[in-house]
Design a protein that fits this description.
By secondary structure, the protein is of the alpha/beta class. The protein is built from five helices and 15 strands.
């Protein structure tokens, strides 16, 4: 499978994209995903959930704070271990056209959408039917049926918010931290050519594709809202404290024998 273009990647080493650790004798798994790219693009999630199953973890903390996004299908892949039925991730992927009037100003060309990528609908618009997240998706094994706690903040957006919205819509986690940054029901991104304005030479990135998520229950004017709001103070940062993780660990341990 070919990965979709990474949206708004951060400059970091590929092997630092994610890691997994265990606490309390394996009863709590902490999965930190810093970006949906790099090492995550291989078998990382498969191996991570196999380890979680072997450890018989009861709670899973997924930390996507300050995760600016990445490859679309990696967000869907992470969700696929947390659901046990076939599911839709996107409701639709729409482009208004295949060619745009500003195409001649696109840096390096690439302003034309390949005909093989889209299908024109009755609405006159083009739908990206070749996207790996299009249509019915299958759950992955091993399924994690335990308690899920998702950590997020205002640095969580793009692919990260797609994952969080789908998780939230399915009531599959407790959300801790601060409101995320992306729209609950979707965004505009995908192919984002750089247009060089001819006179000023200013560079403008123009997203061409509208993403509509297969979710419900959120506020269309907001992002994903936390169930438990926790904010880190400047003093927390200076002293290396993490009240968001501390709260998540408290909830993970609550009610356990």
């Amino acid at each position: 499978m070919t990965l979709a273009p990474v949206r708004y990647p951060r400059d970091q080493k590929p092997d630092g994209a994610a890691d997994l650790k265990f606490l309390d004798g394996g009863r709590i798994a902490v999965l930190t995903v810093r970006q949906f790219a790099g090492g995550v693009a291989g078998r990382f999630f498969d191996e991570a959930f196999e380890q979680i199953q072997r450890q018989m973890s009861q709670s899973l903390i997924i930390d996507v704070r300050n995760n600016s996004g990445g490859a679309d299908e990696l967000g869907k892949k992470l969700l696929s271990f947390l659901v046990d039925q076939p599911f839709r991730y996107y409701d639709d992927l729409v482009l208004n056209a295949r060619e745009f009037s500003f195409g001649r100003y696109v840096e390096g060309g690439g302003g034309v959408i390949p005909a093989s990528m889209v299908e024109r609908g009755a609405d006159g618009k083009f739908h990206n039917i070749q996207h790996p997240n299009w249509g019915i998706q299958q759950p992955s094994q091993p399924y994690f049926a335990g308690k899920v706690l998702a950590l997020m903040n205002g640095g969580s957006f793009s692919t990260t918010c797609e994952f969080l919205s789908n998780l939230h819509s399915r009531k599959r986690a407790t959300f801790i931290g601060e409101e995320a940054a992306g729209g609950y029901y979707g965004n505009t991104s995908g192919r984002v050519p750089t247009v060089i304005l001819p006179n000023s030479k200013v560079s403008v990135r123009v997203p061409l594709q509208s993403y509509y998520l297969a979710v419900k229950g959120g506020d269309p004017r907001r992002s994903i809202l936390p169930d438990v709001e926790v904010k880190s103070s400047l003093q927390d940062l200076l002293e290396g404290r993490d009240p968001v993780m501390r709260k998540a660990l408290g909830l993970a341990r609550a009610g356990r024998q």
